Amino acid sequence: MEDFFTYSVILGIFVATVKIATPLLIAATGELVAESSGILNLSLEGTMTIGAFTGFLVANETGSLWLGLLGAAAGGAALGLLMAVMTATVKVNQVVAGLALNILGLGGAFFWYRSVYDEGGAVALPTVDRFETVAVPLLSEIPALGEVFFDQHWLTYFAVVMVPLTFVFLYRTKYGLELRSIGHNPEACDMRGVGIISRQYTAVIYGGVMAGLGGAFLSLSEAGQFFPDIIAGRGWIALAIVIFGNWRASWILVGSLLFGFLEATQLSLQAQDVNLPYQLLLALPFILTIAALVFNRSRSRVPLALTIPYHRGER
Amino acid sequence: MDTTPVTAPGNDILVAEEVTKVFPGVIANDAVNLNVRRGEIHCLLGENGAGKTTLADILYGVYRPDDGRVLLNGEPLDLHSPRDAIEAGIGMVHQHFELVPPMSVIENVVIGTGAKQWLDLSEARRRLEEFFADYDVEIDPDAEVGRLSVGEQQWVEIFKTLYFGVEILILDEPTAVLTPQGVDELFRILRQMRDEGLTIILITHKLREVIALSDRVTVLRRGEVVGTVNTADVEQRDLARMMVGRDVLMQADKAQHDTGEVVLKIDDIHLASDTGRGSLKGLSLDVRGGEILGIAGVSGNGQNALFDAVVGVRHPEQGTIRIADADTTHAPPHKVALQGVASVPGDRIAQGLMMDFSVKENLILGNQRARRFARAGVLNRAEIDRFADESIEHFEIKTPSASQTTSTLSGGNLQKIIMARELSGEPRLIIVHQPTRGLDIAASEYVRRRLIEERDRGVAVLLMSEDLDEIFQLSDRIAVIYDGRIDYVAEPEATSLEEIGLYMAGVVEAAGAAP
Ligand SMILES: Nc1ncnc2c1ncn2[C@@H]1O[C@H](COP(=O)(O)OP(=O)(O)OP(=O)(O)O)[C@@H](O)[C@H]1O
Ligand SMILES: [Mg+2]
């Protein structure tokens, strides 16, 4: 037990925390924008899987990780577009559409992967050279902090920068104000001539792109390969983080780090054979989300029209 | 220079020609002609369902007419959406507020305006402050809209429409949520705006308002225009006849009679609501058998909480509720009903009916466990059918059959289903919230007559309504609810509309006024 609390183990946990938090944060900030427009995209898990795959596919084919990221963004955008068509235009029940697309994403990625790489029989899994971490000059020299925060992947820096940018977009631009207004009361916006459908498309496709990039972090920065359950529930955790963060970018950052920390601790405990019920740590994100929901009940920032389709002039 | 006086005939600004709009099953507008002159206040008068909102929504681009056309300054106007109307200089404030409650006043105002993407609220703030100063309105531009009173929300609605710089302002029943003084205030400002050159179309079904405010009035009945007249040439009675199609009794008959024992006694109840608005803060009242206690008040002052507390949907944190001899403070709804309590909720669609069920199912809703309708948990269909047919006949419910899906019925008939169901148990207390909201004159008369009949039978009636005429007409005593308390109770003869209005606005603190 004492061994567990050594400096290097703890430092390792913090470094892993930031890594694990990255795809959660990217997907959750994207989902925040989508949900702000009133559309709950439950297909994050499937969209991240597609992103992880299309990213890997393009990187593997072209040999360029950066083109891989573009591929991941395109894969995520495609699923986001489908979601937008179903919910903003056809106005299918959002939960049903999200769950259906989730299955499509998971199954589609698997199917596509098999049809490209599986030539029958057991072959070695194809791999790509992963993204290297990028040390920030000077800052990365700071003891401990430098290693945890300033020697990470490009996508990690991107994820962190997107937190204030998302805030500025939602709260300091007119487009953001109108997007949030649509999420609360689409009719009021329609009656003021604000185009609802175009904004919802933008928001949901953007959310898809971010989920795709989150997935690509796992295949291109972490694993260097693709396997069907590569996302392993992270899409659902990202959805929980949006709720945990009470639809605020800053708290979504906190939530991602917290959930990343729990996961890192859990992995470290298992790796060192410490006899603690790690299942509890696995369940904690969801328990914390429920606790946050209860705690925030009276000051909830949930978009009031979330999941409710809007039809002009219907009663 | 144009020298024509602004209200001269021929100076039409907005015209609807033979406009027709059909919804499944109803012709909401049937070849409607309307001409609105520049700089006038033009009322659209008609009963519930006459097609006023539909016509306004066509002028505002919400609906496209199935037939006919709209002209602005003599030019055909092809509107595809409210955006087009706004660009043509037409603005509209809807009957149901179109606000974003969690956002501030300013944010609500700037939605849909301006081209700049960087959010700049300073311009809006300046104009908002100027506007409020011009018209003597006091509202904090940074206040969250959902926390404003309904009267203040009305101002936000009006200003955010004017912010577009429109020339024509359409207001759909703007007075429904105001106190009598609030209405006077609004009308004063609307006249001022007209004199400054704004053209105003005001929709209402209140005759008094038409006479008080308008220059001309167009009357609609069942989707058709009955006529357009100069307000100065007519009286209320004439307008009523045009609106209803026959002479109307403006008064319900109510005989004097003695009251009995106290049936409902509420003592100092407190009930906090989630949002903080509409909480009860130490409310007391009692209702006797054979009397109608009318509760006047602007919505949002605790009416919903009071209703819920009496019927047992929510329970007060403090204080007691007694019905006859039983303490029902913490009783669940079905136990309260067993005490002989009938209730007609304010929102009949959300709380009173299952819209996808048949009429007969709704007629027994809540009584499905009664001996009469079920044996050992199995519904007795024959008995239910008999009861349904009886009720339909008795309460004059207009429906093709008892098996008809409820959602296809009109508002008045929906209300009759609830009344039939609730009165079938021979209650000793009836609590009704907004019993005639959305009903036409005939249906309203019917509902009011039933309530008086029940009172004459010795039933205690607790009536909550925002329609002051209704309160004055029906009540044996009138109480005013303000900010979760009742501090003023008077007999109708001993008070006046103005006095009630002052208490409703909370302007007067009760100084021993309660008898
Ligand atoms: N979107 C809609 N779908 C179906 N029917 C509708 C719709 N809007 C209005 N109607 C019907 O058209 C008729 C006219 O309705 P409208 O709302 O224009 O009346 P109104 O005069 O504004 O009444 P109120 O005083 O109750 O507001 C009614 O019978 C109504 O039920
Ligand atoms: Mg209307």
Decide which structural class fits the backbone of chain B: alpha/beta
Work out the largest interface and the residue count of each chain.
A-B, 26 and 31 residues
Most strands sheet of chain B = 6 strands, mixed
CATH class of chain A: Mainly Alpha
Distinct compounds present = adenosine-5'-triphosphate, magnesium ion
Task: Count the domains of chain A.
Answer: 1
Spatial ordering of strands, largest sheet of chain A? 1-2
Give the CATH topology of chain A: ABC transporter involved in vitamin B12 uptake, BtuC
The end-to-end distance of chain A, rounded to whole angstroms, is 64 Å
CATH architecture of the largest domain in chain B: 3-Layer(aba) Sandwich
Give Rg of chain A in angstroms. 20 Å
Helical stretch tally of chain A: 12
Query: What coarse outline of chain B follows from CA principal-axis ratios?
Result: globular
**Whole-number radius of gyration of chain B?**
25 Å
Low-confidence stretches of chain B: 1-8, 511-515
The whole-number mean of residue pLDDT values of chain A reads 91
Question: What labels would you give this structure?
Answer:
heterodimer, A: 315 residues, mainly alpha, ABC transporter involved in vitamin B12 uptake, BtuC, two-stranded antiparallel sheet, 1% strand, globular, B: 515 residues, alpha/beta, Rossmann fold, six-stranded mixed β-sheet, 22 strands, disordered N terminus, binds adenosine-5'-triphosphate, binds magnesium ion
